[in-house]
Amino acid sequence: MSGVEGMLPVTVPNRRVRATYDRVAGLYAHTIARFEAPSQRRAVAELDLSPGDTVVDIGCGPGRVLPALADRVRPTGEVLGVDAAPSMLAQARRRAGRTGVTGRLSLTLGDARRLPVADGAVDAVCVFDVLDLFTRGDLERVLDECHRVLTPEGRLCVVTMDRASIADSTFLRAYEWAYRRVPRFETVGCRPIPATAVLQGADFAVQSVTRLRRGGIWPVGVFVCTPAGAADSPTG
Fold first, then answer.
1. How far is CA 161 from CA 154, 186, 196, in A?
2. Does domain 14-227 have CATH number 3.40.50.800?
3. What is the spatial distance between Cα 104 and Cα 55, in angstroms, rounded to a whole number?
4. What is the dihedral sign for C-alpha 3, 46, 84, 21?
5. Which end of the chain, N or C, is less surrounded by CB atoms within 10 Å?
6. pLDDT of residue 5
7. From edge to edge, which strands make up the β-sheet containing 122-128?
8. Each residue of 58-105: pLDDT tens digit?
9. What pLDDT sits at residue 99?
10. pLDDT for residue 4
11. Distance between CA atoms of 157 and 68, rounded to whole angstroms?
C-alpha cells in the first residue's frame, strides 16, 4: 500500500486490541460511542442508501448506528453488523431489541480481515472508526475484503481520524503524542491515518470527503468511495 508514510505503527497484536474493546464494551457504549454517534449518523446520510440495499457495518461495536442503517434500507433491505468483540455484539443485540429493528438486522462475530460475507453480495460497506485500528498490512486485507464483498457499483463509507487534519488540530497532535508516550495507550489501537492515500492505494476512488469535529475538538473525516474504475469523477 503506497502513500502511507508517517502513519504511526500499531505496536500491539490485533488480538490484544480486540480484547481491550471486548473488556470495556459496556463503558464504551455509554461514553465514547455516544460521542461518535452523531458523525456516524451523518456518514449514513452521506452514503445515500436506498430501500432494498444490503449493507455491512464492519466493526459495528455497540450498534448505535445500526437502527439508522436499517431505517434507510427498509422494508426489503438487509443490514449485517460484524464485530470481533463478543461483548460489543452483546451490546448491539440489546440495542437492536430495544429499537425493534431485529427483523431487518443480523449480527455476527467476525474478523474484518476475513468477512463472513459472499463475493459481490452487498451494495454498501460502512467502516466507522475502525480502519485506524489496523497495521498497514491488515489495512490492505480489510480493504481487499471490502472490494470482494461489494457489487461493482457498490459504495464504501469510512469515518476515521485523518492525518491530513493534524496540522490544524491540537487534539490530533496530542492524541499522537499520547499514543507514543502514555503506557498502555496503544492498546486502544486507533491513531490517525492518511485516509485518502490509504483508500486510493487500495483501489478505491474517493467521491466525497466531509470534515467534522466531534464536540468541536475531535476532527474526523467522512469518506464516500467507489471501487476504482467503476466510479465517475470525484465530487469533492
1. 23, 15, 11
2. no
3. 11
4. positive
5. C
6. 67
7. 105-109, 78-83, 54-58, 122-128, 150-160, 218-227, 204-214
8. 999 999 999 999 999 999 999 999 999 999 999 999 998 888 777 789
9. 80
10. 64
11. 14
- Provide the residue ranges of all domains of the chain, joining segments of one domain with +: 14-227
pLDDT band at 185 (very low <50, low <70, confident <90, very high): confident
pLDDT band at 109 (very low <50, low <70, confident <90, very high): very high
Q: In terms of residues, how long is the chain?
A: 236
CA atoms of 39 and 31, how far apart (whole Å): 15
> Is the bond preceding 194 in cis, omega lying within 30 degrees of 0?
no
Q: Does the structure show a pLDDT above 60 at 196?
A: yes
Specify the pTM: 0.92
DSSP the chain: --S-TTPPPP-S-HHHHHHHHHHTHHHHHHTHHHHHHHHHHHHHHHHT--TT-EEEEET-TT-TTHHHHHHHHTTT-EEEEEES-HHHHHHHHHHHHHHT-GGGEEEEE-BTTB-SS-TT-EEEEEEES-GGGS-HHHHHHHHHHHHHHEEEEEEEEEEE-BGGGGGG-HHHHHHHHHHHHSTTGGGG----B-HHHHHHHTTEEEEEEEEEEETTTEEEEEEEEEETTS--S---
Average pLDDT rounded to a whole number, residues 161-182: 94
